[in-house]
User: Which sequence fits this backbone?
């Protein structure tokens, strides 16, 4: 049963003053409480940047910042005790997800058009309580990662942001809930220890859920273990019981998903390999051939005739 509400703020949101930090205090910001009391805010920012760029400093807060890029943009990470990172191109439709526990700073080098979501950590607790799931301790940091779910959900928000005075509260609340649940499921990490004892079967399920949700990305054992709340050794031992390692299981799943693209689309092998998380087209061909027994081109021809 949903008990949250929805509102409109003309000023920067109180959870870190995101819009003001970007120098856009007048940007439209919507807010909604998807469940109990934790509020997620969505800010629509679209501004130009001069030759010197724009520095954004986000203060520390108990929450996370999710940026969905609505146009290609370029920025660098700024660190207090390290050199500025290389410029990173974030393509339209990609996201960045960071913790604000220690604050964050970036230098924007190009025009900026994005949706900024502020999610308090308390919202993760409410989601897990509502779903009767184990707690999510943290979210994985992601930079320039393609996420079709966030993109599609945000498509429902843009008309609302363009006409905030006629905001549809129930729609905004449902989109906020769906977005929060997706982020928690795809990027959530279980606690390390803290008295949480998981069976091998439950750890495997959590690991498989993470791999299914992230098969398009390049993920390694450390990513899978972190999302499962266990050490890499425990992850390896758990999957050894099944006779196949975690990465082998992931490869088989990717090959299975690739069949759909091969059979139902005209994608090239390079496009299919990228969509399914393989490192290259050659890697895709080798893995597919090993799992299925024939190269993907031959399999595709057989299936279409």
Assistant:
């Amino acid at each position: 049963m949903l008990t949250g509400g929805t509102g409109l703020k003309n000023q920067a949101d109180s959870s870190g003053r995101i819009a003001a930090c970007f120098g856009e205090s007048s940007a439209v910001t919507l807010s909604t409480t998807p469940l109990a009391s934790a509020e997620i805010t969505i800010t629509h920012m679209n501004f130009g940047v001069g030759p010197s760029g724009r520095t954004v400093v986000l203060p520390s807060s108990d929450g996370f910042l999710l940026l969905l890029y609505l146009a290609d943009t370029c920025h660098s990470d700024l660190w207090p005790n390290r050199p500025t990172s290389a410029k990173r191109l974030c393509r339209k439709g990609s996201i960045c997800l960071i913790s604000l526990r220690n604050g964050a700073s970036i230098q924007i080098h190009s025009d900026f058009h994005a949706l900024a979501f502020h999610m308090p950590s308390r919202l993760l607790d409410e989601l897990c309580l509502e779903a009767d799931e184990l707690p999510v301790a943290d979210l994985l940091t992601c930079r320039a990662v393609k996420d079709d779910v966030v993109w599609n959900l945000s498509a429902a928000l843009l008309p609302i942001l363009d006409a905030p005075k006629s905001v549809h509260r129930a729609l905004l609340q449902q989109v906020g809930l769906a977005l929060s649940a997706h982020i928690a499921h795809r990027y959530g990490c279980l606690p390390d220890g803290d008295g949480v004892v998981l069976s091998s079967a439950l750890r495997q399920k959590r690991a498989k859920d993470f791999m299914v949700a992230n098969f398009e990305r390049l993920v390694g054992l450390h990513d899978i273990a972190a999302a499962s709340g266990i050490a890499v050794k425990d992850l390896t031992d758990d999957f050894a019981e099944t006779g196949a390692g975690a990465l082998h299981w992931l490869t088989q799943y990717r090959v299975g998903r690739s069949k759909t693209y091969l059979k139902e689309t005209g994608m090239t092998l390079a496009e299919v390999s990228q969509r399914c998380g393989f490192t290259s087209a050659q890697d895709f061909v080798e893995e597919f051939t090993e799992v299925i027994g024939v190269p993907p081109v031959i399999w595709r021809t057989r299936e279409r005739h």
